[in-house]
Amino acid sequence: MSQVIAGLTHMHEKGIAHRDLKVENILLYGSDTFKITDFGSASKNHFLDYKTNKKEEIFIKMDEFESQTTHMYRPPEMLDKYAGY
């Protein structure tokens, strides 16, 4: 798990969000190395900031997120489309 977290941390530092991380997108390479795969839904600079983004911007980004992610692997706060609004 620490390798996956390190990979995600590196991506986030570069401003990249995977947006569809799930078990099927983590592969075992060799006997002790894990790799994050399937960057088809990845995007740059698509992190939501609820303090600075307007509601309309948040709803647009959430709709985009919904169309490009696997429902059963979404974080709990994304299961209700308009959570908190």
What does this structure look like?
- This protein is elongated.
- Helices cover 29% and strands 14% of the residues.
- The longest helix is centred in the C-terminal third of the chain and has 13 residues.
- The mean pLDDT is 79.
- Strands 1-4 form a two-stranded antiparallel sheet.
- The chain starts with a helix and ends in an 18-residue tail after the last helix.
- The chain has a single domain, classed as Transferase(Phosphotransferase), domain 1 (Orthogonal Bundle), CATH 1.10.510.
- By secondary structure, it is α+β, with helices and mostly antiparallel strands.
Keywords:
85 residues, alpha+beta, Transferase(Phosphotransferase), domain 1, two-stranded antiparallel sheet, 4 strands, elongated
The helix/strand series, from N terminus to C terminus, equals HEEEEH
Shape: elongated
- In whole angstroms, how far apart are the ends? 33 Å
Helix- and strand-based class?
alpha+beta
